Amino acid sequence: MTGLYRVLSHVLLATATIPAASAPLSAQQYPTKPVKIIVAFAPGGGNDLIARVMAQRLTTALGQQFIVENKPGAGGSIGFRSGIKSLPDGYTLTVITSSYAVNPSLYKLDYDPVADITPVVEISRGPFLVVVNPSLSVRNLYELIALAKSKPGQINFATGGQGTNTHLAAELFANIAGIKIAVVHYRGVGPALTDTIGEQTNAMITTSAPALPYVKAGRLRALAVTTSTRVPAVPDIPTVAESGVPDYEVVSWYGLVGPKGLPRTIVDRLNAELTKALKLKKTAEQLQSDGQSPVGGSPEQLLATIKKEIVLWRKVVSDAGVKAE
């Protein structure tokens, strides 16, 4: 028994001297390796821009590389699922946007868009733009509505695809404005904008980032922004509400989330660093160049936005009878 006691004593002593690094990381230690930020859409879009700006800020603030990984497909569902199903260790994060709140009404998801995430922070908000080809004989939204009423079903609205935000924003606008439009679906915002510029279609409601350069170059005419107030990037463009459709508001928003179970200490550190970054003048200027404004706030605020948007788009999808492709 004496020999066994000595063996057990040595084992206990060795266990007690295992380095503290084997314990869970504290917020001060995180991160100790590169962090992946998943973008559920192809490179070059608004999601990608937002993610890369935030990745740059976090890399500088936390001393580890934050790397953007694009995983497009199925209206963003493929990338969203990949991020949500990852380990809740803080090394896989996901940028979500308005389409995240649309997808539960269009697709059969194998995750709960509310219960299976840990919200971190709402990054930014911005408008959609109501744009037309300059050849269309309208100078403002009043005139576009009047023209659509005089030619029911003859004004073509391009969309980025069946069930996308650009499609649902157009359907909601038509419903509230009391007009009948013809929707023309494309495989992405880029081709839809190209054909609107080329006069194959008349109009489009699109996120501001890809459309603003064409508006500034005079190749598209912006009639209104869809937010409740005007935006700094285009202060001369009135809101839809100012233009005779007071009950219409659609917001393009971006947030950062982790999987369910992400430790609150890590959430709080990420939230604090991103809130600081969003207050920087340089960050605001980068976002505003694409029509976005920094938000920040608590994780709970982002969760409230997600819940509100899911309810909004569920009604739009139901009212318009929209189905996923």
Can you put this structure into words, describing what you see?
The chain is α/β, with parallel strands linked by helices and 325 residues long. The chain has two domains: 35-126 and 252-320, D-Maltodextrin-Binding Protein, domain 2 (3-Layer(aba) Sandwich); 127-243, 3-Layer(aba) Sandwich (D-Maltodextrin-Binding Protein, domain 2), CATH 3.40.190. Helices cover 40% and strands 19% of the residues. Strands 1, 2, 3, 4, 5, 6, 7, 8, 9 and 10 form a ten-stranded mixed β-sheet that branches. Helix 2 (46-62) crosses helix 9 and helix 6 packs across helix 11 (299-320). The chain is globular, with a radius of gyration of 24 Å. Mean pLDDT is 89; it is low at 1-24.
